[in-house]
Amino acid sequence: MYLKSLHLRHFRNYSDQLVGFAAPKTIIVGNNAQGKSNLLEAVFLLATLRSHRVSRDRDLVQDGASLGEIQAICDRALSPVELVIRLRSESRRTLAMNGVSVPRHLDFLGQVNAVMFSSLDLDLVRGSPECRRTWLDTVLVQLEPIYTSLLQQYNQVLRQRNALLKSIRQGGVTFDPQQLSLWDAQLATTGTRLTRRRSRLVQRLTPIAQKWHQAISGGSEQLQITYTPKFEFADSDTVEQVQQAFLAQIQQKAIVEQRQGTSLVGPHRDEVNLTINETPAREYGSQGQQRTLVLALKLAELELIEAIIGEPPLLLLDDVLAELDLLRQNQLLNAIEDRVQTIITTTHLGSFDAKWLDSAQIFEVQAGKIHV
Ligand SMILES: Nc1ncnc2c1ncn2[C@@H]1O[C@H](COP(=O)(O)OP(=O)(O)OP(=O)(O)O)[C@@H](O)[C@H]1O
Fold first, then answer.
1. Structural domain of residue 237, as residue ranges?
2. Which amino acid positions bind ATP, per UniProt (predicted)?
């Protein structure tokens, strides 16, 4: 997969900017707050239909405009594709592919695949469980576009069940056990789909991340990644067995849930545990060691997407490369070679290994304008 061009109109601080990508590596250099991350965010949106920074389209549309647009031309193994996302400050976004409107998000996903590595990813180690869940969801949406619908269905059921629990707690409705058990069943059905997929993804990512982690850290540390739902199930369990375990746990928590007025069991509460030498990664080691771990996770993500999709995804490195020492920069360089199209942002070129600069095209960005 190769991103040939990107055209941003009224997107963030870009009024009208066309960018052509003519080399395997593109380095975008500029001072703070000029639009470097904004450009990577646009590419990431094409791959996931999610921003890694905000959840409202209103924030993505340029201040003062009502319509923002991201247009991209990509070369895929089979044929080139033109993609358009139209973002509106006051209404829903719309999507188009090769000039034809695409009503369902899942039909748009999968055209562009990307792995983003930004300073926000250090939250994978240090941040809340939600950061790690979101990470898995972002990978799954790309590997299996239907996942985006499964996620929506689950969130809708969760919202409605939470609203019911809340009004039970507040005494707003007479408690109807039958009504609640209908929601329990739906939560278990939709939630099981997410939990099983996330758990399988972790199983596939783990050996690859362990391999990279050993290579980068010199082989002495043992990384372990485990997906930990709020109820136990075995990999060999059938869907029905997992749903039963889910429901049994909901029943066990029934009184506490009604007291707290919220759902306590389900993928929205699951955890992904990262440990190094059996110590939680957030308590383990220096910032540099934690950065090594995140790099290993990102390389695992890249390798797995490439293995499943059959083409390397784009790699988006948002201001993180200069923070890696030369050894780790070179590990990364060797891993991606010229196979993986990479877009890199930085405030200065000084700390880059010369090998990065050799095969790169370099753009400068200033106040939402790109200069070659
Ligand atoms: N919706 C918007 N409309 C107009 N400008 C915006 C919008 N959203 C963000 N900006 C502007 O974009 C700039 C931030 O750009 P960006 O986040 O890409 O920074 P950057 O170049 O990556 O810098 P840093 O190194 O600080 O992250 C700020 O000047 C901000 O005011």
1. 118-308
2. 30-37
